[in-house]
Fold:
Amino acid sequence: MNQEKTNINWYPGHMAKTKRQIIEDLKLIDVVIEILDARIPISSQNPDMQEIIKNKKRIIVLNKSDLADEIKTKAWIEYYKKNGIIAIKVDANQGKGIQEVAQNIEKVMQNELEQIAKKGRIGKKIRVMVLGIPNVGKSSFINRLAKKNSTVVGNKPGVTKQKQWIRLDDKIELLDTPGVLWPKFQNEEIALNLAYTGTIKDDIIDKVEISYNLLKYLLENYFEKVIQRYGLNFEEIEEILNNDNNPKNENIMEIFYLIGKKRGAIVSGGKIDEKKVANIILEDFREIKFGRITLETV
Ligand code: G4P
Structure:
């Protein structure tokens, strides 16, 4: 893979400004809700997050859990729990898990609120902010959470640059705009994971290369789902994969071409249209035609 391409930094100019703004906003915040893509909890996490939110209570939302492997999502939630972090699986499209997040906002603040109450301060509002890289579902999540029974507060007349707060109940207020973090392509695997899931645009890395790598991952981890999806012959595919006379990448490409043949992705002269095959595999993955798949394991 072209290193230059994978090292692309998003929002190079924006980045510092965005970070400053988030750090400024965080001064008002008690609880941070970090939205991750349940299919790629590592790759969809901004690695600077820890530093940015230090001293804040945190809840991790594993969003798009409707697309992810249920068993692996469960394992991730256990993993976070062992590390003292509450993680909740959510489907912001359907509104699943939203209520659980709302309940946990109070739970993570319970001790703190008790301490404050002891000092005589009653009625402190819990202020919450949503953070995450683009496309993980921050806006969908905020809409869902806000829909419960909210009222917009905080925009006093004559004050133009006031933050908009959404009152969720008598204790919790949510900042209406999420903090947009930037994805970081620390290695090729992360860049690819972000590309498979459509978190970054396909044109950053070559589509054939993306789909080839996805197919390789799927064959290694979800073999039967690939066989099923394309009506391939189990033994034939095993034989191709285990053919030691060819380099492994050629074996994978052979299966890539077989899929192309099966799907009629052929250009004049009978050659396989690689771009078309790439689109088929990527769309199938994104439209969960292989079933629910998680790309990162605990
Ligand atoms: P953002 O604010 O973090 O950038 O994300 P946003 O809410 O805009 O969501 C990005 C896309 O992800 C949207 O699709 C949204 O419908 C989808 N999405 C959000 N949450 C979930 C979820 O829990 N499950 C599923 N399956 N999808 C979710 P979109 O606007 O249609 O964009 P696209 O599908 O064309 O990429």
About this structure: Residues 63-64, 66-67, 91-93, 132, 134-140, 198 surround guanosine-5',3'-tetraphosphate (CB under 6 Å). The domain at 15-175 is CATH 3.40.50.300 (Rossmann fold). The CA atoms of residues 266 and 272 lie 4 Å apart. Residues 1-8, 156-160 have pLDDT under 50 and may be disordered.
